[in-house]
Amino acid sequence: MDKKIEWYLPNHNGAEPHGPFSQEQVLAKLDSRELELDSHIWGVHFEQDRWMRIFELPEFAALLEKYPEVPT
Fold first, then answer.
1. Residue range 34-64, pLDDT digits in tens
2. Whole-model pTM above 0.85?
3. What is the full DSSP assignment across 4-65?
């Protein structure tokens, strides 16, 4: 059985982080520009106990702008 991934967002007041959020809720926050791709996020499934930027995560890689390939 797959473990449901839960995401947490930092609380800039230094209190407990906001969450948990589902991936769909994080995507909605990105769509509404409440979050940016360089915002910090933490997932319960992370192997390291550190915050990461959204753009660093494979779960959100499809949201990154693709640059055209340029022949060299």
1. 999 999 999 988 888 899 999 999 888 877 7
2. no
3. PP-EEE--TTSSSPEEEE-HHHHHHHHHTTSS-TTSEEEETT-SSSS-EEGGG-GGGGGGSP
